[in-house]
Amino acid sequence: MHLDEYKIKQNGLNIRIVKTEKFKTNQFVFKFKSLLTKDDVTARALLPYVLQSSTDKWPTTAIFRSHLDDLYGASAAVDVNKKGEYHILTFAVDVPNEKYLQDKTPLTEKALEVLSEMIFNPLLEDGVFSEKVTEAEKRTLMQKLKAVKDDKMRYASQRLVEEMCSDEAYALHPNGIETELERVTPESLFNTYNQMIQNDEVDLYIVGDVETDQIEALCNEKFSLGERENIYAKQQHIKIDESKKVVEKQQIKQGKLNIGYRSQTVYGDDDYLSMAVMNGILGGFPHSKLFINVREKESLAYYAASRLESHKGLIVIMSGVDPGKIEKAEEIIERQLELIKSGEISDQELSQTKAVMTNQMLETLDSPRGIVEVLYQGETAGIPVKIQDWFKGIEDVTKENVIKAANKLIKDTTYVLTAKEVAESA
Q1: What CATH class does 244-419 carry?
Q2: 211-226 burial, b if ≥16 CB within 10 A, otherwise e?
Q3: CA dihedral 98, 100, 101, 107 (to 10 degrees)
Q4: Is 172 left (phi over 0), alpha (psi -120 to 50) or beta?
Q5: What residue segments make up the domains of the chain, in order of their start?
Q6: Which pLDDT tens digits describe the chain residue by residue (426 residues)?
Q7: What is the rounded CA–CA span in Å between residue 66 and residue 87?
Q8: Which parts of the sequence belong to the Peptidase M16 C-terminal domain (predicted)?
Q9: Alpha carbon distance 349, 357 (integer Å)
Q10: Most exposed: 216, 228, 332, 366, by fewest CB within 10 Å?
């Protein structure tokens, strides 16, 4: 499989065009990238939602949605996340391919206009953001932050990261900090917005049946960001002298046992795909060792899985365990990693993991947004993605590569969320 990607650098904007006739819609995605910092992560997290809810041209959400409906059911969405120690704000518009329309409405131009208005022409009152809109979106974001505490699976994952990376920016939640959100004002938010427009590294991805010359001309007309420096997060190699264990008690029935390891491998490293396959064998899929041996055979966990943090060099094991069985579950979970380290990997485990990873990638590439995310993954790491190389790289991973990757892991932190009163396990 091959992606026809065209790259244009224009007016401070990195334009990536993927020409394809596979989809009946065209997708336009802006990515704003900055370093994660405690000072502005919360205000930045709020920005996309304020910008989406009201623009100078379409001052209410209802008016904006009505305009999108007029564009043959176009859609707009925003998102906030982190990749390693980068904070990423996403603005996306999806429109039907105008080549399928009888009246030839210029939807490519209209889509870029929507993004231009949403991002660069916000609704202002007295030179700053609307207080009404700001407060409404603050309430919504506050609900999201509070919801993490109620969802104990997400809460345990976040707490592990906070403990494990306590002196690193990665500890920050991409949606910010509750106490900081309370302090955000229309004025301070507008200052953060100006910093984003002036300093962020900005990429525009366009996936669909479009004309490169037309896109270049339209972007030149609608977007002028000014030249800016590329943004790089310094890779930190944390020395682990001794792993630590953190135990937290709450009024809960199902405990959480999460273990964080430093993989010392990030996206783009020579052994990255070996580490990814190792993670798949350990706990990435329903056929993985954690699922089969901890959940199915031993019945020690409600769920047990592992996750690879590609841009940070971490592997995190997550499990839901009866509070009375946490100690035994920890022993069995760690045994699964030791099995891989010692080479107890079947040919079926290796081949099945490769097959599932390959199918997952094919499914991801079967949508415009998936294509954007795969390509942006590479751009974030400074390593452009070559799809064919990825597939071949997965296929070429050997059992010995997996063993070597597993033996690079260093246990950093164990986080346990358990009940205040623990019944003895049978």
Answers
A1: alpha beta
A2: eeeebeebbeeebeee
A3: -10
A4: beta
A5: 5-222, 244-419
A6: 678 889 999 989 999 999 999 999 999 999 999 999 999 999 999 999 999 999 999 999 999 999 999 999 999 999 999 999 999 999 999 999 988 888 878 999 999 999 999 999 999 999 999 999 999 999 999 999 999 999 999 999 999 999 999 999 999 999 999 999 999 999 999 999 999 999 999 999 999 999 999 999 999 999 989 888 889 888 777 888 899 999 999 999 999 999 999 999 999 999 999 999 999 999 999 999 999 999 999 999 999 999 999 999 999 999 999 999 999 999 999 999 999 999 999 999 999 999 999 999 999 999 999 999 999 999 999 888 889 999 999 999 999 999 999 999 999 999 999 998 876 554
A7: 31
A8: 184-355
A9: 12
A10: 366
Rg (CA), the chain: 23
Sole residue written with tokens 């390891």: 261
Tokens found for residue 201: 């590294």
Q: Which are the contacts of 74, defined by CB distance < 8 A and separation ≥ 6?
A: 68, 93, 94, 95, 96, 107, 110, 111, 114
Which amino acid is located at 236 in the chain? Q
> Residue 84: which region, alpha, beta or left (left: phi > 0; alpha: psi -120 to 50)?
left
Residues across the chain: 426
CB-based burial of residue 127 (10 Å sphere; 0-12 exposed, 13-18 middle, 19+ buried)?
A: exposed
5-222 and 244-419 share one fold = yes
User: What's the N-to-C CA distance of the chain in angstroms?
Assistant: 53
